[in-house]
Specification:
The protein has 10 helices and 9 strands. With 357 residues, it is α+β, with helices and mostly antiparallel strands. It binds adenosine-5'-diphosphate and magnesium ion.
């Protein structure tokens, strides 16, 4: 067995000095980011991917690529007579998801898989109806009696697949810090939308570990992120003093926010009645882990990590109210993206650099 010596274990002096510099560099980067944000606040692109909604339709209607007019959401009769189901493409706790065909289009048909989760299924349907926007999968129809929901099909599937998709022949050119950072921007933009949604501030509860969180989002063929599974979005009604709990079971682990853990130790058995509620800042706790996964290991992703170091430390504050809001995170991400894009493409015009955001 090898003996431990001070010389070959633990960081060297150089490593200690450079490790100690990380917070200092991060603090400096944070200050410069703050000033850039002041400037960006006045610029229109900060508003987000609304141009993705160029195919938007009136409420209760949809249009798929290639369709000239908007159609109203398909009814039970239309789903039963016009949709043919082919193969199972996904399964979560609540739904089975099938690839299906409708009038020459590939579509996704979700069916309630476990009868006892009917409430979650219908909650998800209500959320899909009310949160139709560029950040959410397109609803094409539903049939409450049959427990089916029809949505746009996205062949790359859930965000869990991002690494394998970007490593595919033909996509490798997109496997860059820029594209990956943009995915993280999409994800925090959805949280910003969710926390200020037309249905009130809501929490993305179906997110107790990284895989679970990623599985609720889809990667589109345009390499954007959209939210898909909205089955657990409880409402925070702050003025009425109503906070939320993500389910009635005890949660464990580092991925969930500290306020989601049972606070009374082992001596008192878990009881949902005694478990204190919390708010949407649980989503902000999870942002660094999701973004870290999305950034992956490509050239430049560590530079992005360094620029986000202080912000992500703030997301991990134990006191929920001290964590940054989704707006703060979106603004900082966009400011860092723009500045790094500027450094990497000094000759591009401003609008070329921010066009993709
Ligand atoms: N529109 C879609 N296009 C492609 N894959 C989908 C689509 N909807 C769902 N899936 C796949 O099915 C999985 C389960 O769907 P989800 O809505 O999260 O079900 P559950 O509510 O049971 O968790 C997703 O993680 C994804 O892999
Ligand atoms: Mg799911």
């Amino acid at each position: 067995m090898l003996g431990r010596t001070a010389g070959n274990h633990g960081p060297s002096m150089m490593q200690r000095v450079s490790l100690g510099l990380v917070p200092l560099v991060a603090a400096l980067l944070t200050v410069t980011t703050f000033f850039r944000m002041q400037l960006l606040d006045h610029l229109s692109w900060l508003k987000g991917p609304e141009d993705r909604s160029s195919d938007s339709c009136p409420p209760g209607h949809f249009r798929l690529g290639g369709m000239k007019d908007c159609l109203s959401w398909l009814s039970c009769e239309m789903i039963q007579s016009e949709v043919t189901v082919t193969e199972l493409i996904g399964q979560g706790a609540v739904k089975q998801v099938f690839l299906a065909h409708w009038r020459g289009n590939k579509v996704a048909l979700s069916r309630l898989a476990v009868a006892e989760f009917g409430d979650d299924f219908f909650h998800g349907l209500e959320m899909l109806k009310g949160l139709q926007s560029p950040y959410v999968v397109k609803l094409l129809g539903y049939c409450e009696e049959d427990h089916t929901i029809l949505t746009e099909y996205h062949p790359f599937g859930s965000l869990i697949n991002v690494n394998s998709v970007l490593e595919q022949e033909g996509h490798r050119g997109f496997n860059t810090w820029k594209l990956r950072f943009r995915l993280a921007v999409d994800y925090v933009m959805f949280l910003l939308y969710l926390h200020n949604s037309p249905l009130g501030p809501r929490v993305m509860c179906d997110s107790n570990d990284l895989r679970k969180s990623l599985s609720q989002y889809l990667l589109t063929t345009e390499l954007r992120v959209i939210a898909n599974d909205l089955d657990a979005l409880p409402l925070v009604n702050r003025s009425a003093g109503v906070l939320v709990k993500c389910g009635a079971r005890q949660l464990q682990g580092d991925f969930v926010a500290p306020e989601q853990l049972w606070p009374f130790g082992d001596s008192l058995p878990f009881s949902d009645d005694l478990m204190p509620p919390y708010d949407e800042k649980t989503d902000m706790w999870k942002v660094p882990d999701v973004t870290d996964f999305l950034l992956g290991q490509v050239e430049g992703s560590d530079v992005v990590r360094l620029h986000l170091f202080q912000l992500h430390q703030d997301c991990k504050r134990t006191k929920a109210q001290q964590r940054p809001s989704a707006l703060m995170v979106v603004q900082t991400y966009k400011a860092v993206y723009t500045s790094l894009a500027q450094e990497s493409e000094p000759f591009a015009t401003y609008s070329e650099r921010v066009r993709d955001l």
